[in-house]
Amino acid sequence: MLEEISKTKLEIEAAAANISSREDLQAFRVTYLARKGKIASLFARLRDVPPEQKRSVGQELNALRSFAEELFKEREKHFEESRKEKKGFLDYTLPGREFPLGHTHIVSRTIADIQSIFVRMGFSIATGPELESDYYNFETLNFPADHPARDMQDTFFIEKDVVLRTHTSPVQIRLMESRKPPIRAIMPGRCYRNEVISARSHVQFHQIEGLCVDTRVTFTDLKSTLVAFAREFYGETTAYRFRPSYFPFTEPSAEMDISCFLCHGDGCRVCKFTGWLEVLGCGMVDPNVFKAVGYDPEELTGYAFGMGIERTAMLRHNIPDIRLIFENDARMLRQLG
Ligand code: PHE
Q: Could you tell me if the CB of 283 is within 6 A of ligand 1?
C-alpha cells in the first residue's frame, strides 16, 4: 500500500507537470481529486489495512491528497494569471482603427459648390416653400390658365390651387414681392414633378435658380455671368453655346450647353453623340413677370436662370442613374464623400 502511494505521488507529479490547458487541469482534478478519483479509492482501501499500520498509511494518504491539492491550486492560479494578463494586454504596434465619419450628401455638396461661386460674384441666397399656390408656381410666372406651357411640367396637385412646386422659379416672385431692386440672388431648393421614375428623371429633384434685376441688366450680363460660372464649375477650357429656347417667364429665352467634358466634343453616350451637354435654362425676365410683382418693366430689366442639381451632379461625377442619388446605399454614398 505504501509503495502504491509513493507510485501515485510520482504519477501525480508528472501529470501536474503536463497540464497545459484548462481542460488538462479539469482532467487532473477528475482523475485524482474527485470523489471517484484515484486518491479517494486509495482512502477506501484503508479499511483493509491491518490496524497497526492504519495510522501511518492514513498519514501518508493525507499527505498525498494535500500534495495533489497544492499542485492543483498552483496550476489553477497560473491559468488565472495568464488570463488576466491577456485581458490587459495592449499591443502598441497595432495600426489605429478608423472610425467611419459621415459627410455631406452629394446633393447638398453640389448646391454648396454652386452657391459659393455665385456668392463670390455678389449673389445672396434665398429660399421659399415647397408647397406652392398655383399663383406663385404658374400664374405670376406668366403661365396663363389653359396655356399649353403648363404641360411642360407634370404637376402634383394637392388641392385645386395648391401644388408641390415644379421648379424654384416661384421663389423669384416671392423675392421680388418682398424686396426692392437691385436684386441679385440664387435660390436652391427641392422640386417635384409627376414623372415616371427612370435613370434620367425622378419625382423629386433639386434646382438652383438665379435672378438679377436692376435698371440696366442686359443679355450680355446674363451670358458673361453664366460663362464665368461654367468655367469655374466645369473647368477653364469648357466651351459653351447658347441655344434659343422658350420659357413663359423669360423673353428671350435660351438654354446653355457646355462642351462634353467626358469625350471633349468627340461624341459619347452621355452627350448622346452630340459633343454638347445641356446644363441650364435662362433668359431675360418677361415684362409680364415684372408687372405681376408691381415692378415697372419700362424702368427695370433682369435675367434669370435655373439648373437641375441632380443632373449637374450626375454629369460632374459620372453617375449613371438619378435613383442612386436618393436611395442612400452606403456603398454609393461612400464613393461620393
Ligand atoms: N424654371 C425653369 C425650369 O424648371 C428653368 C428656368 C429658370 C428657365 C429661370 C429660365 C429662367 O425648367
A: yes
Dist. CA 138 → ligand 1 center (Å): 12
Please, what are the averages of pLDDT over each run of 10 residues along the chain (337 residues)?
A: 88 88 88 91 88 89 91 86 73 86 92 97 97 95 78 81 94 97 97 90 95 97 96 90 96 94 81 90 98 97 97 88 90 83
Whole-prediction pTM = 0.72
pLDDT in tens, 242-266: 999 999 999 999 999 998 877 887 8
| Domain range summary for the chain, segments of one domain joined by + | 2-87, 106-335
Residue nearest to atom 10 of ligand 1 (CA): 282
Query: 106-335: what fold?
Result: BirA Bifunctional Protein; domain 2 (3.30.930)
Residue nearest to ligand 1 atom 12, measured at CA? 281
Angle between helices 106-120 and 219-234 (to 10 degrees): 130
> For ligand 1, what atom is nearest to the CA of residue 282?
10
Give, using CA atoms, the residue closest to atom 9 of ligand 1. 305
User: Rounded CA gap, 197 and 189, in Å?
Assistant: 20
Whose CA is closest to atom 2 on ligand 1?
Answer: 306
Contact present, 290 and 267 (Cβ < 8 Å) = no
Length of the chain (residues): 337
Whether 167 lines ligand 1, by a CB cut-off of 6 Å, is yes
Contacts of 255 by beta carbon, 8 Å cutoff, 6+ apart: 242, 243, 245, 278, 280, 281, 282
